[in-house]
Amino acid sequence: MKYRLIPLLFTFISIFVLCNRSTWKEYSIISWDASGYYMFLPSVFIYHDLGQLGKTDSVRYHYALDIPNYGLYSYPNTGRRVEKYPLGVAIMEMPFFFAAHYLICPATHYSADGFSIPYQITMSLCTIFWASLGLFFLGMILRRYYNDATVIITLVILAFGTNFYCNSVFIQGLSHPFSFFLFACLLYYTDNWKRGRQYSIAAVGFLLGMLIITRPTNMIAILIPLLWPGQANGEETRGGVYKIIPLSVGFILFCTVCLIQMSYWKYTTGQWICYSYSNEGFTFLHPHFFEGLFGFRKGWFVYTPIGFIIVCSIPLLWKNNRRLMFLCTLLFVVYTYVIFCWWMWFYPGGFSSRPMVDILPLLSLPLAALISTLRSKKIIFKTIFYVFISLSIALNLFQTYQYSLGIIRDANMNKAYYWRVFGKIKVTDADRKLLLIQQE
């Protein structure tokens, strides 16, 4: 099917950009948050100090990756240190780490220290791999509801018209492309299960566990198997879907995956359940919902205008699948409320609001519904829509390029500076002074 060419196209373009930027030479891929997610692997398989995560400090300092002890907190009652980041990303990075450590480094002159150039390259390729595979699974689930043309257009828009592109190709190692893949797979296997393929619930349980230990706020994904319709027409499947054996297998897999994270917490802190982010937390009484979506600092609708069109398209699901409309609405509202209650709601280190990448698979459903609806409308409406989409994709690609040049910043943007540098590939000191204006 032709829609499967889109993940291949995304992979080709991503690797082409990667080769031309050569960011691995700057040792900038495994650093800061990406280093925090990844650090479990060299600590376990090279330095054997999971309880301290300290032997990597000198190596990280040597490559100037980040500040010492970044993301680590000590627990005096155990004498060990805990990494605040969960384990899910490291698990998904493991095959690429093994390739660098056991294949590439022995065959080259590079040091097998966990952070040399082979590791930088393979971790970059790892992010691209899971992002592309996420597009593949998303195409398979969309094809069950829409025709090939609609699926192709939807995948192109998501791949190149949203901040999925920048946060997968220009910023590697963060959790969002991994979560994107897991969400896309969860949609696919949940739909399988609700169509009567009983043992797909095993994959659902495994994926829910992986989502939670990849990014804890992903626990909102439990709404997907709970609210997903049983058939394309919205009717629940009866018969063997809810039998005890497949449900038990799924529950066991879910608990087993979660137990990996809990065992790490037990080993390092002495507690099965641990809040590893120390003094970082949520401000549930003071959400930054408006700033997170509409603000010039990192607003998703500002830097990813297609996102606004996607959200406005959710009511279009009402006609054919009310359950999906309710699910998309509820998950969007709850998820955005939670992520914008985080104390650092603007999430530095990425383009646009990077946590929104995680739920793009679910939001692809209303986008596809909009595209499908427009195919039957008058040519004037289709023309307006495709012109807007084309301009939005062009804007996203150009602003991603601006981000790579450091013109669009990852945290301290504001309205005055945004419009001053709009469309520019060079900025002056006078432009940069506008960054001193109070954030919006």
End-to-end separation in angstroms reads: 45 Å
Q: Main sheet?
A: 2 strands, antiparallel
Assembly context of the chains? single chain
Nearest-integer average pLDDT:
90
User: Can you write the helix and strand succession as a string?
Assistant: HHHHEEHHHHHHHHHHHHHHHH
Shape: globular
Count of DSSP H/I helices: 20
Model description:
- The protein is globular and about 65 Å long.
- It has a domain at 2-121.
- It has helices at 5-21, 32-38, 40-45, 57-62, 88-107, 117-143, 148-161, 166-170, 176-194, 200-214, 223-227, 244-269, 289-294, 300-303, 305-312, 322-339, 360-374, 379-405, 415-421, 429-433; strands at residues 72-75, 80-83.
- The chain is mainly α.
- It starts with a helix and ends in a 7-residue tail after the last helix.
- A hairpin with a 4-residue loop joins strand 1 and strand 2.
- Strands 1-2 form a two-stranded antiparallel sheet.
- The longest helix is centred in the N-terminal third of the chain and has 27 residues, at 117-143.
Structure characteristics:
440 residues, mainly alpha, two-stranded antiparallel ribbon
List strands and helices in order, with pairings.
Elements: H1 5-21, H2 32-38, H3 40-45, H4 57-62, E1 72-75, E2 80-83, H5 88-107, H6 117-143, H7 148-161, H8 166-170, H9 176-194, H10 200-214, H11 223-227, H12 244-269, H13 289-294, H14 300-303, H15 305-312, H16 322-339, H17 360-374, H18 379-405, H19 415-421, H20 429-433
Antiparallel strand pairs: 1-2
Helix pairs in contact: 1-6, 5-6, 6-7, 6-9, 6-17, 7-17, 9-10, 10-12, 15-17, 16-17
